[in-house]
Structure formats: C-alpha cells, structure tokens
Design a protein that fits this description.
This protein folds into two domains: 15-72; 88-182, 2-Layer Sandwich (Nucleotidyltransferase, domain 5), CATH 3.30.420. It is built from four helices and five strands, in the order ααβββαβαβ. It has helices at residues 2-41, 45-72, 130-143, 162-172, and strands at residues 88-95, 100-106, 111-116, 151-157, 176-182. A five-stranded mixed β-sheet has the order 3-2-1-4-5, with helices on one face. Helix 3 runs parallel beside helix 4 (162-172). The longest helix has 40 residues, at 2-41. The termini are far apart.
Length: 199
C-alpha cells in the first residue's frame, strides 16, 4: 500500500514537472516570435536612409513643378477698389425732443452715412439744439463726399427743434433738394395720451 502511494505521488510530481517544462517552452517560443516580428517591422539603417533620400527627391521635383507653373501663369493685375458713384439719394432727418439723427442713403435705401448729435459728443439738453443739428448735417456731408452725391430727397420725421436746422445745413452744403416730405406720425385719436405733468 505504501509503495502504491509513493508511485502515485511520484507520477503526479513528474506530470507537474512536464507541464511546467511545456509552459516554459511555449513562453520561450512566443517571445521568439514577438522578437522576430519586431525585427521585421523595424527597417535597417540603409532602408531608412533610402526612404529619406526618396522623400527629398520628391520634394525637389514638386518645388520645381510649382516654380514652372508659377512662371507659366499670366501675371494678374490687382483690381482697384473703386467707390460706387451715386448721383441721387435720400436724406432721412429724425428729430426728437432729445436727439437729432441724419442718415443719407441711395434711392434703394442702402445706407451711405449717418450721424447724430450724441455721436458728435453733445450731451443732455444740448443734443436737441439747432446748433447740434447743423453740426450733424456737416458731419454726414464729410462722410458722404466719397460717393459724389448731388441731388437728395429729404424725409423729415419728428417734432424736435433740429429738423429745420438740419435741412438748411444740407441745402447750404450744395445738395440739390428735389423733394421734401414730412413723415411725422400723427395719431388719429388712436392711443390714449399720457396724463399731463403736474409741475
């Protein structure tokens, strides 16, 4: 009985040793395969040098082709950005109790220049004065000189004190006024008016 037990234990030990040897052999084989694949992936020094030289030659050929194309292409002259010349336009004067705004447009309503008394630096009650309105008209005239505007249609809106002053200033600047239209909105007993101030 004891001999049989000893035989069984020795058989188990030999089996374990054999399995361990097989595992180590398989590990060694896999490491050898990995090393072989890495070696095949990494090119030799000569191959690397050859690839670099090929790349340099390709770049030189491309640059030579580009230079030939540039030389063959006709020289294009730069177009000058000419301002569109507009002979006739419109002037919109919006004059309220607080400010005066003058806008100059073409006949389609595209804005050419604008100015206001607040833009020129007037503050508070000075913005609605006649002097501020004349300064606004002069500023708009300077801005629109590049378009060569001559004749204007004037559309006035609002009841401020600067409406007539702005119109006179535009006439003095040499514009031919072909039309004057008052577009001030007038209520036809529509909305209820504000209650009067108690002063």
């Amino acid at each position: 009985m004891a001999e049989e037990k000893d035989n069984k234990t020795t058989q188990k030990e030999t089996e374990k040793k054999v399995s361990k040897k097989k595992e180590t052999a398989s590990k060694v084989e896999t490491t050898k395969k990995v090393e072989a694949t890495e070696k095949s992936k990494t090119p030799s020094k000569d191959e690397v040098v050859d690839k670099k030289e090929v790349k340099k030659e390709v770049k030189k050929e491309k640059t030579q082709e580009e230079s030939v194309e540039i030389a063959a292409a006709p020289v294009m002259k730069k177009k000058k950005n000419l301002r569109r010349q507009i002979q006739r336009g419109r002037a919109y004067i919006r004059s309220s109790y607080n400010n005066t705004v003058v806008s100059l447009t073409d006949l389609h309503g595209n804005l050419l220049a604008w100015s206001s008394s607040g833009l020129l630096g007037f503050k508070g009650a000075k913005k609605a004065t006649t002097y501020a309105a004349t300064q606004v008209a002069a500023d708009v005239d300077e801005k629109v000189q590049k378009y060569g505007l001559r004749d204007i249609e004037v559309y006035i809106k609002g009841v401020g004190s600067g409406r007539e002053a702005a119109l006179r200033a535009l006439a003095q600047k040499g514009y031919g006024i072909t039309k004057i239209k008052d577009m001030t909105p007038i209520p036809h007993n529509g909305c209820r008016s504000k209650k009067p101030r108690r002063v």
